[in-house]
Structures are given as C-alpha cells and as structure tokens.
Request: fold
Amino acid sequence: MLPTATLRSERARRHLALAQRVADAHRGLHDATLLSFISGSTVDDLVDELSDIDMSVVFDALPPVAALRAACRAAGDGEWTWSMGDLDQGGPGVVAFRVDGIETQIGYSTTAALTDDLDDLLVRHNPDTPSHKLAEGIAKALPLAGAGRLAALQARLADFPPGLATAMVEHGLNARPTHWRAAAQIVHRDAPLWSREIVVEAAYAMLHVLCGLNRRWFTRFQLKRMQRLAEKLPLAPHDLARRLEQLLIAPPREAFEALHALEAEVLQLVETHLPGVDTAAARRRHAGYRSR
Reply:
C-alpha cells in the first residue's frame, strides 16, 4: 500500500503513484528488486509544476542495460533522455525519462555500492562528498519496494556519528579558508567577480560548519532550499538565511563587513558547542580583515 497519508498535495500523491508504477516495472529483472524508494520534493510535499520524480532502485547485481531500458519503457512514455555513470560496466548510474509527461530520474545502484557510500559517511567520516545528499534522501525516503530494508538503512542513519560532525566542522573551517587578507585588498579595487567568489565560498564553508555542529547531512552539490535548511539549524546565527541571501546582493564592502560579522558568530558557536575543535587558524585569518 502506498504511504499517501503522509502527503497532503495532490501533485505529491500523483508523483508517488507514478514512482510506484516505475518500481513495479523493475520487479523480476535478472535479480529480484531488493529495494526501491522515492525521495526529494515528493516526500517533502513540495512538488510544483517543475518538480521531477527522484527515486532509486537497488539490486544485488545490476541487470543488463537493455533490461533496465525495457523496464523504464514499460512504465514511461519513451526512451531515456539522458544517462550518466557506469551502468554499461555494471556500476551505479542515473537515468532520466518521462512518465505521463513528468521527468523521472532513477539512481540505480547495487547493495554493495550503496553500503560503501554510507560507510564513507558513518565509518570513514568523509565530511565533503555528495553521499551526504544520498544519506539525507534515504533518511526521509518513502518505500516503493523493500520497506524493511529501507527501514534498516534509516535506523542506521538516525545516529549521526560525532566523528563525522567534528570532521565537517574542521573541513568547513580549514579546507576552503576565507581569504580575508585578499578581501581587505580587493574591496578597494574593481574586482566584483572575485569579491563575490570569496563571499560564496565563505557562505558554503559556514554552512558546512553549521551543519556539522547541528549533526545534519550537508553537501554543496546542487544545494537547494537554503532557507528550509537554515530553519532546521538550532545552533546558528540569528536570521541566517536572510543574512546569507543579503551577502549575494550587497556591494562588496558591505558584503565583506556582513560576512566578517557572520563568521565571528559561527566561530563563537563552534568554540561554545564543540570546544575540542581548534579554531586558532580560523581566528588568525579572521583578524586579517581591515576594510577601512
């Protein structure tokens, strides 16, 4: 039975029903379908006229590409419009096609590859990988096949590793450090693109720190719904989303001043809530900005 009771909008319920049709078309291919689920805007109940269907199908071993194409053809309106990955070599990949006129994207994977992607987060504590997006999607997904298996994955993801949280904070502070000395120099020059680049990189870095501090999955890869993300961060500077958006439209001097103040608040949050993280280098860089 489809879990439509969790979805309020008719659009979301329609997307869920179409995804179920696609999942059903994959049953019995080469290797019985182990797991299929839908995530994205459908499960967030935020489907609009531009939303696609974002789903995954996981096998023990991927069937031949011809069999996958045939399953999609049986469920949809035509051939794949694009594909990427290593499906021809039996590896994971993503394809897109249309079902009743709605773009549907399927992430194909194997149990082993999916396990390795999650181990990269939960065991190896990789702070900067698109697998964060995968984990976030699985954590909120609705099952299309293999509900028990999905529940087991969600239970595993429910315990956010403290080591990963620390790694994310340290990555955000140091992997792409804000060039405050450069900012202090170019604020007086005709360098709007460079100025904006510094601001955007710093904004991503701060979100990385804050998501680690709040133990939330984060990747800058295809980041959408920033305001929704900011609202889910209890440990964050006040009015975070509006302040980040303002950075993108303010003149360089004003943007750097606002960014400098915002970064100071983020550093204070780290020092208060995760005192084991060394912020000395970030503090020294932060002190390098003098715009006047």
